[in-house]
Amino acid sequence: MADIIELSGDIFQVDLKECGYEGRTAGYFVRGKDGWMLLETGPASSAGAIMEAVKLLGIKPEQLKYIAVTHIHLDHAGGLGVVAKYFNEARVVLHPKGARHMINPSRLIAGAYNFWGKEKMEQYGEVIPVAEERVINVLEGDVIDLGDRKIEVWETPGHAKNHVCYYDTRTRGVFSGDALGVFSPKLSRLLERPVLRPATPAPDFNGELMFKSLYRVATSKIEQIYFTHFGVGRPSQLLIENILGQLSVFMEMGRSYSEQKGADEKNNEQKNLENLQLEMEQYIRKGLLGPKKNLEKTGILTEQDWEFQVNMIRMSAGGILQYLNKVKC
Ligand SMILES: [Zn+2]
């Protein structure tokens, strides 16, 4: 049974059960007078969860007008081609820098294979091309009109060059993709404060652009954030300030390592990365466990929760160092 949560303002959050995990990746269905819009398909292996949600929500295939993704990382858009095939009327909405790689996904697949490896790629499922004539390339300021509600496009590069957020004017909520970090509703509930992490993976992370995008969203009139990972977060200002703060800390940590040079450059880079990963991990461990020292021991924070946090921090450390090394040259 698909997990669907009805949010206010005719928005429905669907757990896409990414690679079998609950509470990791969400897609959102938005209802307007002229039809429906789906934001984020998840990977191809999540197409079943989408189809089940469509059935439960009573959406007829011709009523789905738009399928939009925030960027083309496979956990957000890997299923775009597969899902689009079921909905002949739907236009596919994304940034032009991403669109070309969904129309011809060979480079996207090769890059993802390199990054994720065979096992994960099999879990994500097969990426199939999107027909070019169905694509709407969107840029800053473009508007998707659903009749009685409008969805604005905000360009928010930093996590990826092709990243956009979608802003729903009715609920003043932003579908944030990965631009505003990865939110953990479970840990936020347990710790009674927001727990989220900036997502800064290699090779696309650009610190300057991410800061700019964060300021741009922070100074907009938003009231809530629809996180792809995962669920609704508010108050938005507190969440964005939290991400800005963490990003500043991690970038400074990264800077101190990227400035360390050694005789053996290759070995040194690997060592810097390991040290940064360790320092970031210790930092978030202190933040998570500080207020409730026994959290880990009580088993409330499961092995899986912890592993997820640590893996993400490790990936983020790699992106930060790679970016800082690039700007140094
Ligand atoms: Zn991403």
From TrEMBL:
Keywords: Coiled coil. The keyword tRNA-binding does not apply. The keyword Chloroplast does not apply. SUPFAM superfamilies: Metallo-hydrolase/oxidoreductase. Pfam families: Lactamase_B. Residues 24-229 form the Metallo-beta-lactamase domain. CDD domains: ST1585-like_MBL-fold. Residues 259-286 form a coiled coil. PANTHER family: METALLO BETA-LACTAMASE SUPERFAMILY LIPOPROTEIN (PTHR42951:SF22), METALLO-BETA-LACTAMASE DOMAIN-CONTAINING (PTHR42951). This is Glyoxylase, beta-lactamase superfamily II. It comes from Desulfoscipio geothermicus DSM 3669. The lineage of its organism: Bacteria, Bacillati, Bacillota, Clostridia, Eubacteriales.
